[in-house]
Write a structure and sequence with these properties.
With 279 residues, the chain is an alpha/beta fold. It contains 9 helices and 7 strands; from the N terminus they run H-H-H-H-H-H-E-H-E-H-E-E-H-E-E-E. Bound molecules: S-adenosylmethionine.
């Protein structure tokens, strides 16, 4: 911390506790072999997640954000979180595809046993959809659809659009998600291996941008450059401690876009509806 002069004694205690808690999480995570001790790793990361979502002291967060500890801890948590999200989504996807899955005998979304953050992500999609004007939306694309494409599945269930595409630059994510979609028999949804930074968005009326994508603001710039004037963009961006996990959108937001609405998402994140200026 650079200066403690303007901080109340109560917040100084809270700040010190925050640093100590984060250092402890870091030590616990560092001790683990992510592959062989996968379940313990998930358990600690789930705890980190809960902690991040419950932390709501804006003043202490601001002090932490300006401190030298922030960048150091960000580097560590960013990498652990990248691995965690990918591994967890894959774990969920594989469990849905295993022989015990009700999907194999009765492919219905109601039987889809989502848990963890795919479930909370799926539920948060309701908030996102409530911000969108669906009147003229025919084609949807999601940048960063992941191994477990819950946003695509949600949109298929809850809209009447013609076509839903998920793009991901990770080939394993595309392969696993396409297996899930095959089992669920959802022909309106497709997934494709593409990099969000190079994709042409001109065919899409609604674009979702996952919290995990990188480089987020450059992807948003590409969406701006190639999309229709009337495009609606739902982008996920971190709040408070979520900034240790994912790239913030607001710091470098394209000047020709504005935030038209926003809703909370799950732990340390929110969704914003972006529109082009002068539309
Ligand atoms: C883990 S998923 C989360 C999305 C979630 N499954 C959903 O339905 O909303 C995020 C994905 O973003 C992908 N990703 C990251 N950067 C990307 C980029 N530049 N272009 C395309 N995909 C990207 C990662 O490979 C990862 O699979």
């Amino acid at each position: 911390m650079n200066s403690s002069s303007s901080i109340s004694s109560e917040n100084l205690v809270a700040y010190k506790k925050l640093i100590s808690d984060l250092e402890n999480f870091k030590k616990n995570i560092e001790k683990l072999d992510y592959i062989r001790e996968k379940l313990q790793f998930f358990e600690v990361m789930n705890e980190v997640w809960r902690y991040f979502s419950e932390f709501d002291n804006d003043e202490v967060y601001e002090i932490f954000h300006q401190s030298s500890e922030f960048l150091e801890l960000r580097e560590f948590f960013y990498k652990s979180h990248q691995y965690y999200v990918r591994a967890w989504e894959t774990f969920e996807a594989v469990s849905v595809l295993t022989s015990n899955s009700p999907l194999l005998s009765k492919p219905s979304l109601k039987d889809l046993n989502l848990f963890g953050f795919s479930k909370s992500g799926y539920l948060a999609n309701i908030n996102e959809l409530s911000m969108v004007d669906m009147k003229d939306v025919k084609n949807i694309v999601l940048v960063g659809s992941g191994p477990m494409p819950h946003t695509l599945i949600f949109m298929n269930e809850n809209t009447k659009v013609d076509h839903i595409l998920g793009i991901d630059n990770n080939p394993e994510a595309v392969y696993i998600s396409s297996e899930i979609l095959k089992v669920l028999d959802l022909p309106k949804i497709q997934v494709s291996r593409e990099d969000g930074i190079k994709f042409d968005y001109s065919n899409y009326d609604l674009v979702f941008v996952s919290d995990f994508v990188s480089p987020k603001s450059k992807i948003i710039d590409k969406i701006f450059e190639t999309s229709k004037k009337s495009v609606q963009i739902i982008a996920r961006t971190p709040t408070r401690l979520g900034n240790l996990f994912n790239e913030s959108l607001e710091q470098n937001l394209n000047k020709n876009l504005f935030v038209s609405a926003e809703k909370p998402r799950h732990a340390g994140s929110k969704s914003v509806l972006l529109k082009k200026v002068n539309v």
